Amino acid sequence: MFADFLKRLTAPEPETLPDADARLALTALLVRVARSDGVYDEYESTRIDRIVCTRYGLSPFEGARLRADAEQLEAEAPDTVRFTRAIKDAVRYEDRIAVIESLWQVALADGARDAQEDALLRLVSNLLGISDRDSALARQRVERET
CB–CB of 8/14 below 8 Å? Predict the structure, then answer.
């Protein structure tokens, strides 16, 4: 279903994605982080819905639909390294730093830090071109909010 989208995203020199496609790619990354610990539950999917509704000004129905599409894209997407590097090349920096906070919201949604999620967040942050310091500051902001 998303073969053409993934082909454009992983092209040698991808163009900047239109907003709708960037939303889908970044939401798929949220899903990938949520699934990284082997448990993807209703609490995490609900958190993703809230994040995308708030970030993109969507209705609950639109947010749930975006997440459902992102779940399919995530399942079809290449390995995390190629997928994340493709996002870095196609998504503006401001959107990437904002998504790190969202990724931490998902990773911390169950109230516990998991070593696999931490490792994936470090990898994803670096691959998105976000420094460890900025990622740690994003995590601290999320922890203060919860």
Answer: yes
